[in-house]
């Protein structure tokens, strides 16, 4: 005996087409005048005197054209020295120009900018040592965005922050921020 086809499969196909077709017809961002907000998480990789550290950051991006944006980013990291017992806490702010290429769902990009690091030594379980001091930086990076939805993108980026070494050590917080995150266009 043969059972009649299930109406559930037909309903599922209709719902899937109704959801996918309008999404395919929509234009993907960015457009001139668009603003985007995002957050990234990843790793901060400095020189050999530091272990790899966790780094979160958040940013706002403004698009004067569809290909060029200005990104204001705030981030934090606390890489620990390899010899243990000490860390270097740094809060960073950067202003970068970002250029992207249209490639359908994928948008590769490059960035370059300037920044300011606020740095403080930390020992033990988070006890700050000495005063905070500041270092200016230059940054450059590259990455790609994948548009999951017309106004939501997954972002992957490698960005290098360069600055002079600290006076009392031949090292400092210069290094790579390797991050992945989510970006929302408005």
If you had to describe this structure to a student in words, what would you say it looks like?
With 186 residues, this protein is mainly β. The protein has a single domain (29-185), classed as Beta Barrel (Porin), CATH 2.40.160. Helices cover 10% and strands 59% of the residues. It contains 1 helix and 8 strands; from the N terminus they run H-E-E-E-E-E-E-E-E. The protein has one helix at residues 7-25, and strands at 35-45, 53-62, 68-77, 86-100, 106-123, 127-149, 152-162, 175-185. An 8-stranded antiparallel barrel has the order 1-2-3-4-5-6-7-8. The longest helix is centred in the first third of the chain and has 19 residues, at 7-25. The N and C termini lie far apart (56 Å).
Could you give a short description of this structure?
This protein is mostly beta strands. The chain has one helix and eight strands. It has one domain (29-185): Porin (Beta Barrel), CATH 2.40.160.20.
Layout of helices and strands, plus pairs?
Blueprint: H1 7-25, E1 35-45, E2 53-62, E3 68-77, E4 86-100, E5 106-123, E6 127-149, E7 152-162, E8 175-185
Antiparallel strand pairs: 1-2, 1-8, 2-3, 3-4, 4-5, 5-6, 6-7, 7-8
Mean residue pLDDT: 84
Q: Tell me the count of domains.
A: 1
**Biggest beta-sheet profile:** 8 strands, antiparallel, barrel
Strand order of the largest sheet: 1-2-3-4-5-6-7-8
- Return the CATH architecture: Beta Barrel
